[in-house]
């Protein structure tokens, strides 16, 4: 049933606001995500899908964990932008956790079951890409990207 | 005797009762969302059902399936009681309002006072639910709801009892029947009272110019910030039923309620009037930006209460 009505909670974990402006673009009249039953809610307690932007800085990590544990099951995370997907240009910075995979490692260490994640790469991703991720939930669209890990030589 | 009782139970459960009202509530939420979307140059819900008509129902079913969380600091009893009362109080109030004919399902002399009592109890339940949720945001939201009550309560009651004077009855069914028979709609005989009632219902429903208790950009989601799953579903359904209740009050007390015109049955006329009031409320909701809490209180006491009193004086001079 979550496919028919997706309520999203916007969680910025220290991003540069580029992805956040694209999210606003998805919700405002031109793209109008309400067509698909998507609604922006203010409280993580009401959310089904958490839109996570930013590389998860050490300052914001505790708050991000609080927000994610506050959301009721079943819940999903959409990692939006290069930073959230893999740390971006801050992947080895001391000030950030470095992307959602490293963040999930910390979550597992703390005994929190991490929700399923969908990646939307791009810096920033186009609003159409974010809509594609939301349509993927509804089974309206199929996956477009494959996982590939870059190794520095 | 048995068939009478059976037909009453059927009426209570199905036709002007629970099932009809709840379907009407979902439908009117869809109408409002679509209308607001069209004003804002959007599409509104489109893909769930034909034209998105099942969207509110899909939201409700989804919320029923979510995890149910009671926060550690919440007062468990009131946290459970508030969503239940948020739904049952407006449902009870809809039984005393005439919808299908001249007589409501339950009608007695003085049910207007009962209606006023239900409206005040609703706000007090909102305050209790917000205050005892154990979150800072919900506490601020609950206090704001109670503060707002001080502003709109007096003009609301004055406007609610205005139509009772010409009809010289405190029964809603009799008032709407009198208006329909004498062709003296409250909208024409006391237009200021109609305006005051619309403003106060917007404040009571926490719709946009007065959505201070659940201001999303200021205090997250206001008094219902901690509700999840089933509780949130009940709160939202209660809001929808309250929307139906508000438009029904406007249609019954100021627009003559259900009346037979030519061969069109009263229920059709009633629904037309009700949805006209609903669209008026939706239009005002889209048009305005949010006031501050002090602006609401001073505005209510400076302009709306005098307007309601002037209407009352004019009414007394005429009748």
What does this structure look like?
The complex is a heterodimer of chains A (153) and B (319). Chain A has helices at residues 18-27, 58-70, 81-86, 99-109, 127-137; strands spanning 6-12, 38-40, 49-53, 76-80, 116-120. With 153 residues, chain A is α/β, with parallel strands linked by helices. Chain A has a single domain (6-137), classed as Rossmann fold. The model of chain A has no long low-confidence stretch (mean pLDDT 86). The termini of chain B are far apart. With 319 residues, chain B is mainly α. The radius of gyration of chain B is 20 Å and the shape is globular. The A-B interface holds A 1-2, 4-5, 7, 29, 32, 34-37, 39, 41-43, 45-46, 48, 70, 72-74, 138 and B 33, 37, 40-48, 52, 54-55, 58-59, 61-62, 65-69, 137, 216-217, 220-221, 225-229, 232.
Defining traits:
heterodimer, A: about 150 residues, alpha/beta, Rossmann fold, five-stranded parallel β-sheet, about 15% strand, globular, B: about 325 residues, mainly alpha
Q: What is the succession of H and E elements of chain B?
A: HHHHHHHHHHHHHH
**Residues in helices of chain A, as a percent range:** 25-40%
Helix percent of chain B reads: 55-70%
Named CATH topology of chain A: Rossmann fold
Estimate nothing, just give the exact number of structural domains of chain A.
1
Radius of gyration of chain B (CA) equals: 20 Å
SSE topology:
The complex is a heterodimer of chains A (153) and B (319).
Chain A: E1 6-12, H1 18-27, E2 38-40, E3 49-53, H2 58-70, E4 76-80, H3 81-86, H4 99-109, E5 116-120, H5 127-137
Parallel strand pairs in A: 1-2, 1-3, 3-4, 4-5
Chain B: H1 2-13, H2 18-39, H3 55-64, H4 76-95, H5 111-131, H6 136-161, H7 164-167, H8 172-182, H9 186-189, H10 191-204, H11 216-219, H12 229-254, H13 266-287, H14 293-318
Helix pairs in contact in B: 2-12, 2-13, 3-12, 4-5, 4-12, 5-6, 6-10, 6-14, 10-14, 12-13
């Amino acid at each position: 049933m979550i496919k028919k009505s997706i309520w999203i909670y916007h969680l910025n974990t220290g991003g540069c606001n580029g992805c956040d402006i694209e999210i606003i673009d998805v919700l405002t009249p031109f793209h109008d995500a309400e067509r698909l039953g998507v609604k922006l809610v203010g409280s993580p307690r009401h959310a089904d899908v958490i839109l996570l932007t930013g590389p998860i800085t050490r300052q914001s990590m505790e708050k991000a964990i609080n927000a994610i544990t506050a959301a009721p099951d079943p819940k999903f995370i959409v990692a939006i932008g290069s930073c959230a997907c893999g740390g971006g240009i801050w992947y080895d910075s001391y000030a950030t956790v470095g992307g959602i995979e490293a963040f999930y490692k910390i979550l597992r260490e703390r005994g929190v079951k991490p929700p399923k994640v969908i990646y939307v790469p791009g810096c920033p991703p186009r609003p159409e890409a974010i809509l594609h991720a939301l349509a993927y939930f509804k089974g309206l669209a199929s996956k477009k990207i494959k996982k590939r890990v870059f190794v520095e030589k | 005797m048995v068939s009478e009782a059976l037909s009453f139970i059927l009426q209570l459960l199905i036709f002007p009762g629970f099932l009809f009202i709840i379907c009407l509530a979902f439908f009117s939420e869809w109408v409002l969302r679509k209308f607001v979307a069209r004003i804002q140059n959007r599409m509104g819900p489109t893909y769930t059902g034909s034209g998105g008509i099942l969207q509110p129902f899909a939201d409700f079913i989804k919320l029923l399936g979510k995890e149910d969380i009671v926060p550690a600091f919440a007062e468990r009893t009131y946290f459970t009681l508030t969503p239940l009362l948020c739904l049952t109080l407006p449902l009870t109030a809809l039984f005393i309002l005439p919808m299908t004919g001249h007589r409501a399902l339950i009608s007695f002399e003085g049910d207007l006072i009962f209606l006023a009592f239900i409206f005040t109890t609703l706000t007090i339940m909102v305050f209790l639910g917000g205050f005892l949720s154990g979150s800072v945001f919900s506490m601020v939201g609950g206090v704001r709801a109670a503060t707002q009550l001080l502003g709109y309560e007096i003009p609301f009651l004055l406007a609610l009892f205005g139509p009772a004077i010409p009809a010289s009855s405190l029964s809603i069914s009799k008032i709407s029947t009198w208006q329909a028979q004498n062709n003296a709609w409250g909208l024409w005989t006391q237009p200021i009272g109609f305006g005051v009632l619309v403003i106060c219902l917007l404040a009571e429903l926490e719709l946009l110019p007065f959505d201070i208790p659940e201001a999303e950009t200021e205090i997250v989601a206001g008094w219902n910030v901690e509700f999840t799953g089933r509780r949130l579903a009940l709160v939202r359904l209660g809001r929808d039923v309250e929307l139906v209740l508000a438009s029904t009050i406007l249609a019954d007390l100021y627009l003559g309620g259900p009346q037979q015109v030519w061969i069109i049955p009263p229920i059709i006329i009633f629904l037309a009037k009700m949805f006209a009031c609903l669209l008026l409320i939706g239009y005002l909701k889209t048009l305005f930006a949010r006031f501050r809490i002090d602006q609401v209180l001073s505005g209510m006491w400076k302009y709306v209460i005098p307007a309601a009193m002037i209407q009352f004086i004019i009414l007394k001079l005429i009748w």
